[in-house]
Design brief:
The protein is mostly helical. The strands form two sheets. A five-stranded parallel β-sheet has the order 2-3-4-1-5, with helices on both faces. The chain has a two-stranded antiparallel sheet with strand order 6-7. The protein is globular, with a radius of gyration of 28 Å. It starts with 5 loop residues before the first helix and ends with a helix.
Length: 735
């Protein structure tokens, strides 16, 4: 790619399905704009300016202190501007624990790209965005400013149709950036006795939009939500105007104050804030507004009874949104009994300390989740530190999410798999924060279980690079290690297997050698040796040594059975064994092995491996000379992959169906499916079966091209590549 050096790519570091999927885990696909939990007030001027700026330059950054509403403004602007972009909007929330080395993968995930090693991920992302007209929203860049700047500079240089809207407390600082400081909301033109009691405070210019100014409108809307039946009356006008003026139009401060109307009338509220908030100083507006917000948070905190204050502090260890069970498991103890958590949480929500996210996922439709604004969470973290409870609460959070990972590990190979993948979508930020703490403070045994289990969850979601990141962190951060972690063969074998799947041979070889040495040293480690042989077999498969791969994978299968291993990665070895047998010229054995995978996973209720087994069963059946039955098996696999939202798996299924249609002599439909498969895979051609599959697919592609003629093939391929996601899947399924 011109202008992008390999080194720069390395330093910087999937397209979301266009149609709704049938399972909730697919509905929570990355890249969507978040729902707005409350009404949006004001910002006409800023929205108009943003429309002009985004249309005319590559990067626009919304800046300002916390609590000013940067994220809400960015989301509202992106929702309005989205229809003007041919390929829509992609949203990336960078709040919570993030590592710069994963930035390209994180952004690529929002575009629906397969997860890859950092340099390859950046290359794939650049290739993808270069072909699209898209608005990318990077929200909460504060902790990754340098990485975001480097990534955005590369993307904008290579993708003329890309526009980026970023938010942060400071600019990214790259050439061509336009910075829009987000101001406070408009406050009343006059306050106190200068506002007649019969006239609601108005916008300063009294023009076409005369009426309550934005600050007063926000206060009135939030107050009505906090105190049902409350309306802005003539008698309250002066007090509300004075209050909004003292709060300097800072949205979060206004929301926190309005929530107190449940217990305090407007006049007393204004008087109380007069005593607590320092007078504004026009010469230094920024720092004073930050002090104003801090004073309001202090005041809101002071109005809370002790139990509510304690829950506020303890909830600060939850980095993402959370549900009642999260709050109970992490925050409850003798000082804060579990029976009080639900009531106190609702009180914090009523006070705008946390925001309700109605119906945003959960195991039941409409389950409540909550989110704490970043500035409020930071304040709670300070209070928790003053209480001397930070370490204890982070230990509890690690125990909560580590235990959940343990249950998921045991159930990923069962009918509970979709529920746990959905859980991952909800709790990802909290898991990351808990793991960060666990790597520093938890026992090695607990870290080992958590990282191994989480690696499996991430692998099933196609996030192999992220799984490898956590594995590398565990290896690097746990020195000196306890004997159990130091001697475990399963740990390096798993992450060696993941490196093989990313076609990253050197780290894979080093990890597999380490795993093999550990397995030999521990003569009774049959479990670890099974994973070692599985990883070695997949590596041999990727290197084109199909017969060797089949032998190693058969040995791995037997060792897994001897050890009683029954986790979700075990049947993956059977998928590769079937594929290796097929490509070694023994489609009959491949059909037997793939049928075995399908039968066992179906009996357990598992979906992810079963769907891959169906795809490979379809491929082996086609290679055995029965393309029509093979296509039926691959279509069964595709239906499951569609429901799971598994883009790499969908790409493989489309390819296998294309191979079947080629074998049936249907060259142009096959060409369309090959094009759709490449589009689904983010133009990388990568699948679970890697290079061996690509070689086989190239053979059938050449055959289809000869049957159709080069020009007709290319035209059909282009049409397939341009098909909307759901249309491509529908055609592959015979629609």
């Amino acid at each position: 790619m011109p202008g992008v050096t390999v080194e720069r790519r390395r330093q910087a570091g999937r397209e979301a399905p266009e149609a709704a999927m049938s399972l909730t885990i697919a509905d929570r696909r990355p890249g969507r704009l978040p729902d707005e939990p409350t009404s949006f007030v004001g910002r006409r001027g800023e929205l108009a300016v943003l429309a002009r700026l985004v249309g005319g330059c590559g990067l626009v950054t919304l800046t300002g202190p916390g609590g000013m509403g940067k994220s809400r403004l960015a989301v509202r602007a992106a929702a309005r501007l989205g229809p003007s972009f041919e390929h829509g909007v992609r949203y990336v929330d960078l709040s919570g624990p993030r590592h710069p080395s994963l930035l390209a993968q994180t952004v690529g995930e929002a575009f629906g790209l397969p997860d890859q090693a950092p340099a390859a991920a950046l290359d794939a992302l650049v290739r993808h965005v270069a072909r699209h007209r898209t608005l990318l929203v990077l929200d909460h860049c504060d902790d990754l400013t340098d990485g975001c700047a480097m990534l955005v500079e590369i993307l904008l240089r290579e993708a003329p149709g890309l526009r980026v809207l970023a938010t942060g407390r400071r600019p990214l600082g790259i050439p061509g950036e336009r910075v829009l400081p987000v101001p406070p909301l408009a406050v009343p033109a006059a306050v106190s006795t200068a506002v007649p009691s019969t006239v609601p405070p108005t916008v300063p210019d009294g023009g076409a939009h005369a009426g309550p100014c934005d600050a007063v409108r926000l206060f009135a809307e939030r107050a009505a939500g906090a105190a049902p039946g409350w309306t802005l009356t003539e008698g309250d006008a002066a007090a509300v105007a004075r209050l909004c003026d003292r709060l300097e139009g800072v949205p979060l401060a206004i929301e926190l104050a309005a929530a107190q109307l449940r217990t305090l009338p407007a006049g007393r509220l204004a008087a109380g804030l007069d005593e607590r908030i320092p007078r504004p100083c026009a010469s230094v507006p920024g720092p004073v507004r930050e002090r104003t917000l801090r004073a309001v948070i202090d005041w809101s905190h002071g109005l809370c009874p002790p139990g509510r204050r304690l829950l506020w502090a303890r909830l600060s260890v939850l980095a993402g949104d959370f549900d009642l069970e999260d709050a109970e498991r992490v925050c409850a103890d003798a000082a804060l009994p579990v029976g009080r958590i639900a009531g106190l949480l609702e009180e914090l929500a009523a006070g705008s300390v946390v925001t309700r996210l109605d119906g945003d996922g959960g195991e039941e439709a409409g389950a409540l989740r909550y989110r704490m604004p970043g500035t409020v969470r930071e304040y709670g973290a300070e209070r928790l530190e003053l209480l001397g409870q930070t370490g204890v609460l982070r230990d509890r959070a690690f125990a909560r999410f580590g235990a959940a990972i343990g249950r998921a590990t045991a159930e990923l190979g069962t009918a509970a798999q979709p529920r746990w993948l959905e859980w991952f979508g909800r709790e990802r930020a909290n898991v990351h924060a808990a793991l960060e703490h666990g790597l520093r403070a938890a026992a090695d045994e607990d870290v080992l279980r958590a990282v191994l289990g989480y690696g499996r969850i991430l692998a099933l979601r196609g996030l192999i690079g992220e799984a490898r990141y956590w594995g590398a962190r565990a290896f690097a951060d746990r020195c000196p290690m306890t004997p159990r972690l130091r001697e475990s063969a399963e740990m390096p074998a798993l992450f060696g297997l993941l490196a093989v799947l990313q076609e990253d041979p050197e780290p894979a070889r080093e990890l597999m050698d380490r795993a093999a040495a550990r397995a030999r040293a521990a003569c009774d480690d049959v479990r670890g040796l099974a994973y070692v042989r599985q990883a070695q077999g997949v590596a041999a498969f990727g290197a084109g040594r199909a017969e060797e791969a089949a032998g190693l994978l058969r040995e791995a299968r037997d060792l897994h059975r001897l050890a009683g291993n029954d986790d979700v990665l075990v049947p993956v070895g059977g998928v590769f064994l079937a594929a290796a047998s097929a490509l070694a010229g023994d489609p009959g054995a491949a059909v037997r092995y793939a049928t075995e995978v399908v039968r066992e996973t179906e009996a357990a209720g598992e979906l992810w491996c079963r769907s891959y087994g169906l795809c490979v069963l379809g491929l082996a059946t086609v290679l055995g000379g029965r393309p029509a039955p093979g296509m039926a098996e691959a279509r069964a696999g595709l239906r499951i992959k569609r429901d799971l939202g598994d883009r790499p798996g969908i790409g493989l299924a489309l390819d296998v169906i294309g191979v079947a249609r080629t074998a049936l002599g249907e060259a142009e439909p096959a060409a369309r499916l090959f094009g759709a498969a490449d589009a689904s895979l983010g133009f990388t051609g990568a699948t679970l079966l890697g290079a061996e599959h690509r070689r086989l697919r190239a053979t059938y592609r050449s055959r289809a091209e000869r049957l159709a003629g080069a020009e007709a093939f290319r035209a059909a391929y282009r049409r397939g590549a341009g098909l909307p996601f759901e249309a491509a899947v529908s055609e592959a399924l015979g629609g």
